[in-house]
Amino acid sequence: RMFVLRQGVGVTASITPWNFPLAMITRKLGPALAAGCTQVIKPARETPLTAMALCGLAQEAGFPPGTVNLVTGPAATIAETWFADLAVRKVSFTGSTEVGRRLIELSAQNVTRLSLELGGHAPVIVFPDVDVAEAAAEAVRGKFRNSGQSCISPNRYYVHDDVYDDFVDAFSEASRGLCVGVGTEAGVHVGPLIDDAAVAKAFEHIEDAVARGGKVTTGGSTIDMGAGYTNRFFEPTVIANASHDALVCREETFAPVAPMVRFTDEADVIRMANDTVYGLASYFFTRDIGRVMRVAEGLEYGIVGINDCLPSTAQAPFGGVKQSGLGREGGHFVMDEYTEVKYLSIRI
């Protein structure tokens, strides 16, 4: 008789980012526990309190000691310790591609299982057959969520020449209507950036885009929130006539900045959308079912949102291709990351 078993890999570890500090932990911890694994969590240094609160709740709920664990400190030292320890059988990381490359190197010494959700540079393609107002509203919703500080945040917009002016006008008008402020207050849509370096990068990308012929149609600066607040509240910003070669179209911005690039040819825009080392999320708007299949199959991304800029959901696989990572989180696919397949052969 032949049997196949799936068994939990054992001790696992996770390194999580600051931008969604609870969700990034639970999407790693949940499947680990479901597979019968324990986990050690290393939260981002910018947001450790959320992880601490979660571990406190796990203890209060009666999780056995040693099931859910937390460590803070220098990320490099912690990672090196984990990968040198044969007891650690799997590490899951969400963060930059640069750090991901280093973790791949470290994982080689003990062939430690590794899953990576790394950087993204999501394109949005707007074809000429769309309802411009609907497409602009959905595109704005996706772009400015969490102030643009999301790995799947739209980073560059390719708009067909036939609807370009109307789309940029609608997108800019909707962006002006967003309220920037403190997230605990009613009616606020856009909060602050994480630190001063993020603000500096947003300015750098805007200045570079303008130097290459782009025009800021709305936003472009920080907002003075008054005494007691940092200067990290950034206006939703739209750049018309952006160049495909601008920094904002080449590097992950992680800020509320939306560059608009013209296109006329379907094959050419797919080439521009794929012209990056990243391959996490992508988006396009169309009503043509034939184009839906052609473009969806042509885009080199792990996630494709079609008329939908918020495709992430717990029951669907989440992850990228190329230098955006290895493996998947979400849905039943994630269980492959936390289990080993064991084949049994019984002679009877």
Overview of the molecule:
- With 348 residues, the chain is an alpha/beta fold.
- Helix content is 31%, strand content 22%.
- It has helices spanning 23-34, 48-61, 75-84, 97-107, 132-143, 164-176, 196-211, 266-274, 289-298; strands at residues 2-8, 11-15, 38-42, 68-70, 88-94, 113-117, 122-126, 154-160, 215-218, 237-240, 257-263, 281-285, 303-306, 325-326, 339-345.
- The strands form three sheets. The protein has a seven-stranded mixed beta sheet with strand order 9-10-11-8-7-12-13, sandwiched between helices. A six-stranded mixed beta sheet has the order 4-3-2-5-6-14, sandwiched between helices.
- Strand 3 (38-42), helix 2 and strand 4 (68-70) form a beta-alpha-beta unit.
- The protein is globular and about 70 Å long.
- The model has no long low-confidence stretch (mean pLDDT 97).
